[in-house]
Amino acid sequence: MCKLVVLHNYSDGFQTHRYRRKLTLSANSANVVLNNSECIFTSPKSKMYHNYFVNKIAIVTGGGSGIGCALCLKLAAAGAQVVCADINLSRAEETAGLTGNAAIPLKLDVSICTEVEAMLNSVAAQFGRIDIIFNNAGISVGGELRDLSVTDFEKVMGVNFYGMLYGSQAAYKLMLQQGHGQIVNTSSGAGLIDGVPLLAPYSVSKHAVVSYSKVLRTEAKALGIKVSVVCPGMVSTAIVADTRYVNALQNAKDYSITELSKGISAEKAADHILRGVAANKAVIIFPVKMKIALLLSRLFKAPFRVIMSRMIAIYRKQYRKQTPD
To answer: In this structure, are strands 2-11 and 16-25 parallel, antiparallel, or unpaired?
Structure first.
């Protein structure tokens, strides 16, 4: 449902009068023509940032699904020109279709530096500038360190860290030339909490994203470039379904999918992110449960380590294969 406030104008022959009328529109009533009226979007979750993104040139990597898709939709609704980049072109095209073709779909492998640089240069040449880039693409691999290979780390770091690095560095140089811009890098709550087990490649990559983003923000501030890092807790997306679990039973993935489905929606996550970006927050953490978990992990380190140890014990008993493949 979409809540609107309509400001009607009418004249009695002497002066123009205005009055307000609230409307609630369903998805089926999206095409509405209001004569002699101004239609103002007043969703409480979006009114705080909508004006900020009007006419912005925004690039979203990993825009074909999950948080990336939600970002594309909300940015387009907020009046931005969106470039939806994804390694899966069909997913990017689906997202663009959901925006009413207000977004441009592109195929992009963020782990290839030359592809990222070429895409950014192409967008800058087409629109004359790049206002915001959301380095959002991410993957994961699950399992114990003793079961993981260096290749597993290289693959995850290639997308999560180097993909972010390629996008940030290339965009930074372009933004320095134009004198303004904003870089938004997606990390995770796992990038803030130390010692999270069973997701080592993911956790390590996300810690690196946080560290890089903080350094870039410090260096870029005086040069007119804004930088934020996004650290969400549990968000209901398909990342777990796409995750490979090494030397684990199928029930490990099934359990993770069930748990992640309890998280906030990608749409709510996008609202949190865009409000934080509009406010130029250094670190955007959400939801409240994530903030509480982070606080507890820092205040009660010993008990938190006990919890992590119990997680490993349960995993080994219920989810890890006793006989490796």
So the answer is: antiparallel
Rounded to the nearest 5 degrees, what angle is found at the Cα of 102, between the Cα atoms of 99 and 104?
105
Looking at the structure of the chain, the number of domains it has is: 2
Kindly list the catalytic residues.
202
Q: Which residues of 151-171 are buried (b: 16+ CB within 10 A; e: fewer)?
A: ebbebbbbbbbbbbbbbbbbb
Residues 122, 33 share a domain = no
For residues 194-202, average pLDDT? 96
Residue 61's identity, in one-letter code, is: T
Token pair, residue 34, equals 């209001």
Whether the pTM exceeds 0.70: the reply is yes
**How far apart (Å, rounded) are the C-alpha atoms in residues 107 and 64?**
10
Per-residue pLDDT tens digits for 116-148: 999 999 999 999 999 999 999 999 999 999 999
| 140 in Cβ contact with 188 (< 8 Å) | no
Contacts of 88 (CB under 8 A, 6+ apart): 64, 65, 107
Instruction: Tell whether 150 and 268 lie within a shared domain.
Output: yes
CATH code: domain of residue 236: 3.40.50.720
